[in-house]
Write a structure and sequence with these properties.
By secondary structure, the chain is mainly alpha-helical. Helix content is about 50%, strand content about 10%. It is built from 9 helices and 4 strands; from the N terminus they run H-H-H-H-E-E-H-E-E-H-H-H-H. It has helices at about 5-15, 20-25, 30-35, 45-55, 90, 115-130, 130-135, 140-145, 155-170, and strands spanning about 65-70, 75-80, 95, 110. The protein has a two-stranded antiparallel ribbon. It has a two-stranded antiparallel sheet with strand order 3-4. A hairpin with a 5-residue loop joins strand 1 (about 65-70) and strand 2 (about 75-80). The longest helix is centred in the C-terminal third of the chain and has 15 residues, at about 155-170. The N and C termini lie far apart (about 45 Å).
Length: about 170
C-alpha cells in the first residue's frame, strides 16, 4: 500500500470530500485526485493553499538522526540526537506491539493514556526498537517525564542521557 500524500492526509483529517476540498481551494477534483495519488506533484504554493483550506498548516521539523550503541552484553540500541513529538491521538493511543518488539510473551493491548502502560511500552521500545519503532511509539515530552522511572539497562540510560539532558537543562 502506498504511503498517503500530505494532501490526502489533510483532506481526510478535515472530513471533506475531494470535490468539496477542490472547490474550496480553487482547483478541480480530477487535479486534486492526481495530487492525492502522487501521480502529479503540486507546486508548493498550491500545496500550501490546499492544506490550509483543509484546516492544516505545513510545518518544518528537524530530522532526527540515530546512532547505534552496544549494551554491556553486546545488545544493540538505537539512540537519537534529539527528542520529537507525536500527535496527541498517537501519543495516547491503544497499541499492540509487533512481535519483533514484544517477543517474550503473548500479545496484549497497551493503553498509552495510562502512565503504567506507557512506561512499559517505552521500556520495551527503548530496549528492542529500531529507529522507525522509536518514532512510532515514543513521544519526547512524555519520555522526558517518565525517563527516570523506566526500568532499562544502565548502558541504555547512559546512551540516551545526552538527548534527555538536552531538554532538562534548558532555561525558559
Amino acid at each position: 500500500m502506498a504511503e498517503d500524500t500530505i494532501i490526502a492526509r489533510a483532506r481526510r483529517g478535515s472530513g471533506l470530500s475531494q470535490r468539496a476540498l477542490a472547490h474550496r481551494s480553487g482547483t478541480s477534483q480530477p487535479t486534486l485526485s492526481t495530487y492525492e495519488r502522487g501521480t502529479k506533484p503540486p507546486t508548493l504554493t498550491v500545496l500550501e493553499r490546499i492544506v490550509h483550506t483543509s484546516g492544516c498548516d505545513l510545518d518544518l521539523t528537524s530530522r532526527v538522526r540515530f546512532t547505534n550503541h552496544l549494551g554491556s552484553r553486546g545488545e544493540p540500541y538505537v539512540v537519537p540526537d534529539r527528542l520529537w513529538r507525536l500527535d496527541l491521538e498517537t501519543a495516547f493511543a491503544e497499541v499492540v506491539l509487533p512481535g519483533h518488539l514484544h517477543w517474550s510473551g503473548p500479545s496484549r493491548a497497551y493503553r498509552l493514556a495510562e502512565r503504567a502502560d506507557r512506561a512499559r511500552v517505552y521500556e520495551i521500545v527503548l530496549r528492542e526498537g529500531a529507529a522507525p519503532d522509536l518514532l512510532t511509539y515514543l513521544d519526547g515530552a512524555l519520555l522526558l517525564d517518565l525517563f527516570d522511572e523506566l526500568i532499562i539497562p544502565p548502558a541504555l540510560r547512559k546512551a540516551w542521557a545526552p538527548a534527555i539532558d538536552r531538554y532538562r537543562n534548558t532555561t525558559p
